[in-house]
Amino acid sequence: MTTIRLSDGIVKDDVLVVGLAAKNSKTTKNGATSLQIESGDVALDTKALVQALSDLGATGKADEIIKIPGTSTRLIVFTGLGTSATHYDHEVLRRASGAAARALAGNSSATFSLPAKNIAAVKAIAEGAALGAYRFDQFRGLSKSAQQTPLKAITVHTDLAGKSEAKAAIKTAEVIATYTHLVRDLINTPPSHLNPETFCKAMSDAVKKAGGASVGLKVSVMTDAQLKAKGYGGIIGVGQGSSNPPRLLNISYTPKGMKAKKKYAYVGKGITFDSGGLALKPAKGMEAMKSDMSGAAAVCAATIAIALLKLPIAIEAWAPLAENMISDTATRPSDVISIYGGKTVEVLNPDAEGRLILADALVRAQETKDLDAIVDVATLTGAQVVALGTRTSAVMTNNAEFSSHFMDVTKETGETFWPMPLPVELRASLDSPIADLANVGERMGNMLVAGLFLKEFVADELPWLHLDIAGPAYNESKPHGYTPVGGTGIALRSLVQLAISASS
Hints:
The protein is of the alpha/beta class. The protein contains 13 helices and 21 strands.
C-alpha cells in the first residue's frame, strides 16, 4: 500500500509534481494558452518553465499531464488544474493529484506541491494521489511482470506540515485510500473467484487485519439454511438459482472507550454476479455485472475505515449476498416470495433482483435498537445511468433534512450525487393483484419506482437514504483523475464523511 508523509523542507524525491492552470482562458500572441504554474510552497523558475510548457502546447486542462526534466529533481510533472483561481476546489486538487499519480506508475516516490492553503486541501491532495496510485493485477500471469508498479511513497509538500491537524488529515487519507482500494479489488475480482461465501471471507479477513474486536469490530454471517429458516425470502429467492448459495453478512462497529453519538445502519447490495436470472440480460455488457456487489463492498469497507478512524459513531453494516443465475431452481416470473417480516412480493422481473435482497436486509437492519438513520447503497437500476450518466449517483429519501445534510457531506468528499424525487403517483404501479406488491412497476421513471419499492420496507419515521450508484460504480471508459478503469469505490468516502460529520 502507498504511504503518505508531509514535508515543508527540501524536496528529496527525484520527481516533483506541481499544478498547471490556464489564466482565465487567455491566449498569448502566438495563440498558445497563457499559463500559470501552481507550485505551492516550492519555488520554481516559472518564467523559463512557462515558456517551455507553451512550446510543448500545454493547456492546463484537467487530466493533462506534462513531464519535463527538472534541475534539482530528475523530473517535474505538471498536472492540469483547469482555469487559474485564488482558491482551487478541493476536488480539483484531488483529481489533479490522482491524474499525476496514475501517470507516475513505475516510479517509486514523488513529492506533490500544489496549492494547499488549508488542512482540507492537504487532505484532498494526499487522498487524490493515493487513490490514483492503484493497480489490479491479481489475475495476470505472464504479463504481470510487464505492469508498472504504482507509486509506493507520496510526500505532500506544505507549510502546514508541522500541524497536528495536517498529520491527522494524512492519516484519514491513508485509511480512505486503503479501503477504497479494497472495494475496487473486490469489484474487479471475477465471479469465478468472488461469490457470496468468498466475499464474506474477504471481508472477515479485512476485519481481522484491521484489529477485529480490539477496534470495536464484529462479524457474523448467516448461511442459506439459516436465511431460509428465518424467512429471508428475498435473498433466498434471488440466490436459489445458483450453485453458490446466498449469505447475509453483518459487520458491526461499536466505539471503544466512548459513547456513540449516533447509530447508523449501512446496507449494501451484494449481487456477486447478475445474469438477469430467467430475465436473461443481453450478452453485451454482461461481463460488467461482476460489479453488482459494489454497494455491499462500499458499506463493509466504510465500516472498517470508520473503526480505524476511531469515530464515536456506531455502525451496523449489512450485505445481503447472492448470485442471480439461471437453473431449474431459479425464481420464475410471476413467482411470489415473502420478504423477511412477512410482506409478500410478486416477482414479475427476476432481473429486478437487487431490491429483493435489499428489502430483506433493510427490514433486518431496523431491528437494531436506537437507530438514528439508515443508508442503502446499490447498483440498482440502468435507469440511473440514463438519467444521470456514469459519474453522478442518485439520492432518494424519506427525510429532506437528512438528504440535505448528506449532500453537504458529498461537497466535502468530491463524490457527485444528485437528489431525485419519490413521486407518490408512481407508487400505484407497484400494486399486485395477488401479493402485497410487485417488484417492478411503471417503466418510465424506473429508478424512482425502485426507490419507492425500497421505501415500502423502511419505517416512515426513520431517516433513510437510497443511493443508486449504478453508473459511477464501474468505469468502462477511460481512466480520469484518480479513477481507474473498472471498480471505482464510489460512496465509501461519503459514508465515512457522514460518520465524521456526525462526530462533531
